[in-house]
Here is the input.
Amino acid sequence: MSFSAIVVAAGAGLRAGPGEPKAWRNLGGRPIVRWSVESLLAAGAHTVVVVVAPDRLAAADDALAGLTGWIAAPGGATRSDSVKAGLATLDAPADEPVLIHDAARPFVGHDHIQRLLAGLGGADGAIPTLPVPDTLKRGDGQVTETVSRDGLWRAQTPQAFRLDDLRTAYRAWPAREEPTDDASVMERAGRKVAMVPGDPILMKLTYPEDFMLAERLSGTQRIVRIGQGIDAHRFGPGDGVWLGGILIPYDHGLVGHSDADCALHALTDAVLGAIAEGDIGQHFPPSDPQWKGASSDRFLRHAVARVGARGGRVLTADLTIICERPKIGPHRDAMRARIAELLGLPVDRVSVKATTTEGMGFTGRQEGLMAQAIVTVETPA
Ligand code: MG
Here is the structure.
């Protein structure tokens, strides 16, 4: 049966933690969006419209390089805007099936697609559904009601419709409301949507843990990599130093092109070192005026995003600050909390230690301070 598909990959995926938007992260050596597009093309889709954020059109070319039969369309602010953009772009017969799919569900397979196309035979739409195994509660910190599971189902994607039916249903949908899936748009239009068996493997990657589970399901072997970083900055005029992402009042500042946060620089180099992607100076050249006075948060976030782009994650960080003054102890907890936030880690995975050099050397003479960091990350092998 001839069919086409729209893959929605325009979301930011804010619940997925730091790093690239989820559709563009790596899963088993391939960008997540590529998994679905490959499966849909392999199952016989003549066209797959991939709806991406307008600034991701070039990224889509990279992510889907070598595949034929797909075209990109710039998406909108909401999921439904993106689906509508895909529907406007798709060139296919009016009564032909179109599958609407979220890129964040990478494990769509031939069987799922065949079940949906078969289900569409006797209805205006077909969606994969699963029973709800858990007891459902309504409440807000305290339970106010136990909700009966009778007749409740979880809806997944892809969802199958006929192209013109879905276009018509979207035109009738009230502009101020945002549907959570496409079937609800058809339901509102009074159309009959059939339920076909869903599959747990059609899981939606939403939270950081989901990516780990997906990596396991993808059969990819993972390895732990260790990186280390060292940085030093000289004291100069000022009334405080940026260190570990917080401002510590002091009778000097630190001299540097950026905010001179020695601790975040060491951590950034450690993260980059763990994935063998050069050093902070290569990514953010000191000769580039745009980094003058820059908050070092962005350097570390960038390095963490590079790990995310490889389908990896930071596991632990151990930082040692070497100086006579300022005293680190009173600021240790604030520093740990900030670094944990930047690395996307729980605080108990982040260590901040401090030592002196007993008056010896440049730190002993209080000419400047130094930081060393060791970071572990996990990535696909
Ligand atoms: Mg530095």
